[in-house]
Amino acid sequence: MLNRVRSAVAHLVxxxxxxxxxxxxxxxxxxxxxxxxxxxxxxKSPPAKAGGGSVAPAKTAEARASFSRPTFLQLSPxxxxxxxxxxxxxxxxxxxxxxxxxxxxxxxxxxxxxxSRHNEDQACCEVVYVEGRRSVTGAPKEPSPGxxxxxxxxxxxxxxxxxxxxEMASRLLHRHIREQLKDLVEILQDPSPPPLCLPSTPGxxxxxxxxxxxxxxxxxxxxxxVTHESLVVGAIENAFQLMDEQMARERRGHQVEGGCCALVxxxxxGKVYVAxxxxxxxxxxxxxxxxxxxxxxxxxxxxxxxxxxxxLKPELLGGEFTxxxxxxxxxxxxxxxxxxxxxxxxxxxxxxxIELEDLRFPLVCGExxxxxxxxxxxxxxxxxxxxxxxxxxxxxxxxxxxxxPEVRVYDLTQYEHxxxxxxxxxxxxxxxVTSDCEVAATVDRVLSTYEPNDPSRYTALAQALVLGAxxxxxxxxWRLPNNKLGSGDDxxxxxxxxxxxxxxx
Amino acid sequence: MLNRVRSAVAHLVxxxxxxxxxxxxxxxxxxxxxxxxxxxxxxKSPPAKAGGGSVAPAKTAEARASFSRPTFLQLSPxxxxxxxxxxxxxxxxxxxxxxxxxxxxxxxxxxxxxxSRHNEDQACCEVVYVEGRRSVTGAPKEPSPGxxxxxxxxxxxxxxxxxxxxEMASRLLHRHIREQLKDLVEILQDPSPPPLCLPSTPGxxxxxxxxxxxxxxxxxxxxxxVTHESLVVGAIENAFQLMDEQMARERRGHQVEGGCCALVxxxxxGKVYVAxxxxxxxxxxxxxxxxxxxxxxxxxxxxxxxxxxxxLKPELLGGEFTxxxxxxxxxxxxxxxxxxxxxxxxxxxxxxxIELEDLRFPLVCGExxxxxxxxxxxxxxxxxxxxxxxxxxxxxxxxxxxxxPEVRVYDLTQYEHxxxxxxxxxxxxxxxVTSDCEVAATVDRVLSTYEPNDPSRYTALAQALVLGAxxxxxxxxWRLPNNKLGSGDDxxxxxxxxxxxxxxx
Lengths: 505, 505
Description:
2 copies of one chain form a homodimer.
Chain A: H1 6-15, H2 61-65, H3 77-83, E1 106-110, E2 121-130, E3 149-160, H4 164-182, H5 185-189, E4 197-198, H6 228-249, E5 259-268, E6 271-277, E7 281-286, E8 289-292, H7 303-312, E9 321-322, E10 338-341, E11 350-353, E12 361-362, E13 364-365, E14 372-373, E15 383-384, E16 406-411, E17 422-426, H8 428-431, H9 436-447, H10 457-470, E18 472-473, E19 478-479, E20 491-497
Helix pairs in contact in A: 4-6, 9-10
């Protein structure tokens, strides 16, 4: 997320030192009542280094020790050092030997060109088993593995202002999703429509009687039908919120610094759920056709939401900002002149007479990768950022950021997929320099050079995409074949085959 | 807007009598500083009669006298009576003799089957000349007709809870648009990008010096480029707001009762602007292909905006409503049980434990045509409704309703249109019983029976669409050929030819 949180990082790192030591929480994979707290090894981000240059900053042994990469990369200490090297920017993938990722998923990543000390992207790929918490009918129920649910899970987390939030989300978000799904294990496997109302206390006498389920008749003339699919969407949405709340609770003492975008895929019962909060992107490439599976959430795409919040809650602007947008900064000498503006209701522009309060800094300003909320942050959704303040101010930015993802659903059973049909997930390091069409062309080019049943083809594709976005060192920078600058940002890519050798039956 | 404002109407009409007489404002077609106020003949809506039946309510001579239809229909007193007859429901169009509508536009309408005393739809079709108010460079300027702008204008206004708002909007909204465009006459005709800042006082000494225009350089590193198109969009958006504010000012003494959806088309300098606030709809049918030019704004499509407002401003809910949505009404005996819900951030559903405040009535409830805000109104954007209160309560609904349209732009110059390519505008009376595809099929069927250069073909098409949605009286109701109920609502349709005999050069 190059250039996006420069000033925020500068502010944050100037306000605190290294995190105090804290007892490590035990990992609790089977905990049912709560998701484990963050361990102490969350790294502290050093001052950011802006720009896409090739010079690697000096690293201390201490910093290196707190650096972590996804466990599925199975990095040796030497491998970890190479993955952390800004000068070489070696592309990392899971080893060809050893256990493959589920579904023969391909993965590749590369560290940034020096904008932050470590790679602030994190990734997770898991098969998660969900044990039902209770019977729908309220009957007490013994854990019964055969009746649980399994979901496949992929997550990309693009950190900013430190790596802590991304690291925590990569360890815990899927467990929050599992927690949310526990109530739904029976309901999702029952073909009848979900019950609108459930009894309050499982296991109370008589509650196994299905008549305890409230009948559909009611004081309304009608009732909405709720689909199984929308329950999974709701579970993922609430999991994001609970993950964010956990970060808020544990942020004190800088246990969780910074924030992160989150792009998550859940495969459950024949459907692919793509949840996105931030500026990562997912597309499906199917028979050469591109199907967008996410949208980016930035100050530009969310301008009206941000302006509406500033308008309805002016106290959040602290007298320092105006909720109006102007095409450039208004200058004091322009008082009384008329300038173009947009408010929360407008998509077009109109002229207004400049008044004193229009001289305040605009809540939303800038364009493209330089667009900012409160002159500080360039993404508007994600997890964390609870400590984030406006530069040189105590004004919190978090109220304007949303932790809620947009969730899109793709039904895998509605189409006969071939081995070349893939879901591509990438952080903005990929998409800043690569169009959807270029990705589709690379998918075609790389996969056609491998046998359809060669499981290594998806990793090769992920590597090709990361290499293509990174470029090669030349003329004092990382450059693409067309001599434009490659991405100096962290780049991470998942390739999920939709009909390939990975079996998802 | 059948069934949508039943209770609202019942409440409103029970709260007041006939409007007090008020001096008629002179029409001011050339006024430059303000849009004329509403005249006194705004009709007062009688109690609504629900359902799509065929029985016409009794009418008094008084009520008939205050009834108005678009002037371009050129209705005689006898014609006006026939247009106002719920039993016959004769389809009305401009006469074949006499002056045609601009662009050979086709139009047809029919009154409802008895749900309100008069037809609460209104329509307007005008060519509007905009005289520049000032020079961009600030130089004093004599009115110079040659340098003005001409725009073509079509408007459909679907009234509810009375006909006053729709009638007022049909007379005045295009004048508000003209006022907004006056500042832009020179700018829109200058191919260079619009100036971001204008001098404050036209005609002051020295202000003809172009150096008074603020140069693009500034304290920001960049500035947004604003297009001519977005200025027109902004002008239309602000015109809607000013129209709504005028209704608010003049609502006292019941000068303007009720509210209305507004669907407006502006053709200016090669582009078609379609602005929609409410549940009317516009589609282009081009070479058989359907291009949607609007979306509907209803409690369902705007659920999250409404819930967010209720969440951020709970005082607007008056302790009577909850911003949460439930799939059906929660019953007191269900306290402590868990029910499905959605909040302002969710698109999916999840279970929550029912608490006391969840027993309040939901801000948004119901489905499809029965969806309601605060149990009262079924559309969420439009003009007027400043007197609208929640049934049996003093809680105002207006803060939840938005007067801002969504504006879509279609560039007429980007495609060679044939005489069968049309823009279809219809109130919900058409779309409730007719799909986009059925409309496209009717376009093909009707236009192919006329010579391409026969200007009456578009009126014939509008009539066919209205007749097809109305049906014929049979089995105690208006029925379609498939024996389903036709629309008992007011139905109004414009057909705007995009490449037909109407010249728009």
